[in-house]
Specification:
Length: 324
């Protein structure tokens, strides 16, 4: 009869063995589980490989337990019997270090950020500025507001925001990001920032987008126009349905032919943990679809299925999307 707390998946076994290295009953149960089906051995190897993506588990660890190309699958009990105690200690320490890394990364992503206005994971905030302009701030985002007699300046420090600007011809409304300066008089538009680029999409009116790292002429965007500006100032323009712009305000994330790296980056703002997308080919894969932000774990798994990848739930707070 299965123990109520007995793990069921490879990632759960990995954590359980790390937490209880001296539990002989647990090791015996793991040996039974491992040898029960060939699929269990395969999933165990993939769980170990997923941990290796974090650079904490040494390569010889997976070789000691299982070779992916081996025709003869050794039992865990046999391997455990011949593995020196020092190596087992090294394995336990490596897995413990990986788990600590997960918790450390998770903690840093949940620290309260600086900024005049901020949002937590899963929070969408509606802000009314002193001139009557509205800002819808997406999950895990932050911005500063600096108004003067001549300008209305916003600094979007992180995340995504939709701006519905009150027209004021004598005081241009400007939004500064790491890659671009967006200027308007009165309009509605969305800005999405990431570590290496910023995207601007216009829902109503007209905006000017000026890359900040070169002297290229400003790009004029009208309703349905959008632009991606990279760190080096290069950009790509495209068009989109104005109905899709800032659909995240209604809990929907709609994308049309966008790279998987961009889609995952947007979804993980709503995921209560860490998400790793591993593999350059996966990152460049184009995606079209609609996802519910209220269920980011389901959305991320759907993205993985679309690009032919697999999802590894390493802990309740970490997902790894990899080609396997």
């Amino acid at each position: 009869m299965r123990h109520m707390t007995e793990p069921r998946k490879a990632s759960e076994w990995l954590l359980a063995l790390k937490d209880n290295p001296a539990d002989q009953r647990l090791r015996d149960a793991f040996s039974v589980w491992y040898n029960q089906k060939p699929e269990h051995a395969t999933s165990w190897l993939k769980a170990v490989q997923a941990y290796k993506l974090m650079g904490e588990v040494p390569a010889e660890f997976s070789q000691e337990w299982q070779s992916e190309t081996s025709k003869d699958r050794p039992t865990v009990a046999t391997v455990a019997n011949v593995t020196p105690f020092k190596k087992r200690k090294k394995w336990i320490a490596a897995v413990a270090a990986a788990a600590c890394l997960v918790l450390a990364v998770f903690a840093t992503t949940h620290q309260t950020p600086d900024g005049d206005y901020t949002t937590a994971q899963g929070e969408i905030r509606d802000i009314v500025l002193s001139d009557g302009s509205h800002v819808h701030l997406a999950s895990r985002s932050r911005l500063n507001v600096r108004y003067s007699d001549g300008f209305r300046d916003i600094e979007l420090l992180e995340g995504q925001a939709f701006f519905d600007v009150t027209r004021h011809p004598d005081r241009p409304f400007r939004v500064q990001t790491g890659q671009a300066l967006v200027s308007v008089l009165g309009t509605a538009f969305d800005i999405d920032t990431s570590a290496d680029h910023v995207s601007v999409a216009v829902k109503e009116g007209t905006v000017s987008v000026q890359p900040t790292v070169n002297s290229k002429a400003p790009q004029i965007l009208k309703k349905g126009d959008a632009i991606d500006v990279a760190e080096d100032g290069t950009f790509a323009r495209f068009t989109t349905s104005s109905n899709y712009i800032a659909a995240w305000r209604d809990g929907r994330f709609i994308v049309n032919d966008r790279p998987a790296s961009e889609v995952v980056a947007a979804l993980k703002r709503y995921y209560n943990g860490v998400v790793i997308l591993h593999g350059d080919k996966l990152k460049d894969h184009k995606i079209t679809g609609m996802y519910l932000l209220s269920k980011p774990d389901v959305a991320l798994k759907a993205v993985a299925q679309t690009i032919g990848a697999e999802v590894y739930q390493i802990t309740p707070w970490m997902l790894v999307i990899s080609a396997g």
